[in-house]
Amino acid sequence: MPKKFIAITALAALAIFAVPAAASAVVYVPGGGVTVTVTGEPTPGGTVTVTAEPGSFPDDSSAKITLSGAPKLSMGAVKAPTATVNDAGAVSFTVVLPATAVGSQTATVTGAQTARAGSAAITLIGADSSTARLASAGYAAPSALIWGGAAALLLGLALATASVVKRRRVTA
Question: Which residues contact 62 (CB under 8 A, 6 or more apart)?
């Protein structure tokens, strides 16, 4: 009986001293950089979403975004420069690009508690830039029409070949 009492007392003492250590434990976040992606239309007056991948930060922590580049965009372009990380460890920011925005910007997302950071480029596509999209050059035919035309052409070639083969057999 005394051995059981000593064992229970020792376990209770360990539990008392282990609770403060567990309460102050740091949430594990994997090492390395944060992968950041930019989605949306990077055009003047457009809106893009800057997202840090799941597992980048501890859940329910916070992260902030900064923009840098030439010419510099104001932080007023970001709806909320600090956001709460979701349960998956990801965070997203919405950036509204000014109508006069040009050049290339770098969006950097940094965790407030972990100081882990990642960045992605936002290359603005302006109407007068060389990377602008081409205007529509005319009628865009439906793919069924294109495939139907190709099938009709192949059928015509097959019939012409069959006619030539039949004619050669008759004369031979």
Answer: 82, 83, 84, 85, 111, 112, 113
For 43, 54, 69, 104, 129, the CA distances from 132, given in Å and listed in that order, are 9, 32, 20, 14, 6
CB atoms near residue 122 (< 10 Å): 21
State the residue for tokens 């567990």. Answer: 22
107 beta partners: 67, 120
Query: DSSP code of 96?
Result: E
Question: What's the domain range around 96?
Answer: 29-124
Q: What is the pLDDT of residues 1-52, one digit of tens each?
A: 677 767 677 666 666 666 555 444 444 455 567 888 888 888 888 888 888 8
CATH number at residue 47: 2.60.40.1930
> Is position 18 within any domain?
no
